């Protein structure tokens, strides 16, 4: 029987992990039909194909013990061929046919749109225990809006030290009609102009934005938010960069027909933000909100991977190595609270294989290196595929 078994193995080319389990079963149940033994198990890959989900998702379900009799053999999961796909707990809180997908309302340097497929693997909401979400460096909010599109959580907290950015989030939430009216006016004024007149119009709006930024007035926050969106949609590469005086200094881009007022998305964003706590402040202010029921995503200004790649001027404040270390210490404190945490950053090993900065300060956590595309660099040859870090405490 064993010889016949190995001949069948050569025909069907099963993975070695499955072979070992099947061999064990044959030795234990000698009278069982060999072909029936073959059909008893399937791999995570086969289950993924059968159920129409990713192999990674099957592995997660196995690790959560949601697939009956699933077993880890070597470095792979196997399970009975008769196993049924578990009901996805997420579907109970999210109905794709009823919910509208919401996307970031700004282009944002360092935005995480391209890494969402990697980051979403860390979403811990399927168990039902994690009911809160915190993003203390919200930026353009790619992860925030992905979560808002998929989950109905109890509480969400976002923050950033960029006052103009947070003002825009608040105005979209609280004064969407007035904002859309202003943006439509700017779009109708700007689009018909030729290049020279567009530049003049752009510079006028940039100067007005900087005047409001420096001489902040609560009565004109709606105008400042509209200017923030307008400049973002018409400036070079969608950058938000300020000089040492705090003045926005990005030149106009060369878009032929920019979508300055995406009314449908803005109204959807406004609805999604209604229950979101929006704070202008340091990431440490989120501490009181974070507990064992919270998923926290930290996306701080990235550590430069070269001496000349220090684009961190989203605000007048810098985020140097000391600040990165302080953040790591804060992460450790939140870890003790029982929160699920993910941090993203640049990988210094892109330029120096011996640079263990993040490996050292996050040595207590898991570090995964993933591929990303760096699009912003004055030198086109410096753009392209690089490694970034996803660091987690689970």
Helix content: 25-40%
**Quaternary status of these chains?**
single chain
Query: What structural class should be given to the helix and strand makeup?
Result: alpha/beta
What is the end-to-end distance? 45 Å
Overall mean confidence score, pLDDT: 84
- Taking Cα atoms only, what radius of gyration do you get, to the nearest Å? 26 Å
Strand content: 5-15%
Count helical runs: 14
In the sheet with the most strands, the strands line up as 6-5-4-7-8-10-9
Say how many strands there are: 10
Write a brief structural summary.
By secondary structure, this protein is an alpha/beta fold. It has 14 helices and ten strands. Helix 13 links the parallel strand 7 and strand 8.
Structure in words:
The protein has 394 residues and is an alpha/beta fold. It is 38% helix and 14% strand. The chain is built from 14 helices and ten strands. Residues 10-14, 34-38, 90-98 and 376-382 have low confidence and may be disordered.
Describe the structure using short key phrases.
seven-stranded mixed sheet, 394 residues, three-stranded antiparallel sheet, single chain, alpha/beta
What order do the helices and strands come in, and which of them pair?
Elements: H1 2-12, H2 16-28, H3 34-38, E1 41-43, H4 44-51, H5 55-63, E2 71-73, E3 76-80, H6 116-119, E4 132-135, H7 142-150, E5 155-160, H8 163-174, H9 176-190, H10 195-214, H11 221-234, H12 263-272, E6 276-280, E7 294-298, H13 321-336, E8 340-346, H14 357-361, E9 366-374, E10 384-392
Parallel strand pairs: 4-5, 4-7, 5-6, 7-8
Antiparallel strand pairs: 1-3, 2-3, 8-10, 9-10
């Amino acid at each position: 029987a064993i010889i016949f078994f190995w001949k069948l193995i050569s025909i069907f080319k099963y993975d070695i992990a499955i072979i070992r389990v099947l061999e064990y079963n044959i030795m234990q149940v000698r009278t069982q039909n060999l072909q029936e033994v073959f059909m008893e198990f399937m791999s995570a890959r086969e289950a993924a194909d059968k159920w129409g989900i990713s192999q990674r998702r099957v592995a997660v379900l196995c690790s959560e013990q949601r697939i009956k009799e699933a077993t880890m053999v070597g470095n792979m999961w196997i399970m009975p061929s008769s196993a049924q796909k578990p009901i996805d707990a997420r579907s109970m809180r999210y109905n794709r046919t009823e919910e509208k997908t919401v996307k970031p309302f700004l282009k944002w340097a360092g935005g995480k749109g391209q890494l969402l497929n990697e980051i979403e693997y860390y979403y811990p909401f399927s168990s039902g225990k994690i009911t809160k979400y915190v993003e203390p460096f919200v930026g353009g909010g790619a992860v925030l809006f992905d979560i808002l599109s998929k989950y109905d959580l109890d509480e969400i907290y976002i923050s950033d030290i960029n006052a103009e950015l947070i003002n825009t989030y608040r105005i979209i939430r609280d004064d969407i009609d007035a904002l859309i009216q202003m943006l439509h006016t700017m779009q109708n004024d700007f689009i018909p102009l030729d290049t020279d007149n567009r530049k003049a119009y752009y510079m006028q709006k940039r100067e007005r934005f900087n005047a409001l930024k420096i001489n902040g007035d609560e009565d004109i926050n709606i105008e400042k938010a509209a200017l923030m969106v307008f400049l973002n949609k018409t400036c070079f590469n969608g950058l938000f960069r300020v000089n040492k005086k705090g003045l926005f200094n990005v030149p106009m881009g060369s878009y032929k027909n920019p979508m300055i007022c995406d009314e449908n998305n803005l109204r959807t964003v406004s609805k999604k933000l209604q229950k979101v706590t929006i704070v202008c402040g340091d990431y440490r202010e989120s501490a009181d909100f974070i507990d064992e029921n919270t998923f926290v995503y930290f996306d701080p200004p990235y550590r430069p991977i070269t001496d000349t790649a220090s684009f961190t001027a989203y605000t007048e404040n810098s985020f140097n190595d000391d600040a990165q270390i302080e953040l790591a210490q804060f992460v450790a404190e939140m870890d003790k609270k029982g929160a699920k945490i993910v941090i993203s950053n640049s990988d210094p090993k892109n330029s120096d294989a011996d640079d263990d900065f993040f490996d050292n300060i996050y040595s207590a956590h898991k570090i995964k290196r993933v591929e990303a595309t760096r699009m912003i660099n004055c030198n086109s040859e410096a753009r392209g595929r690089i490694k970034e870090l996803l660091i987690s405490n689970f």
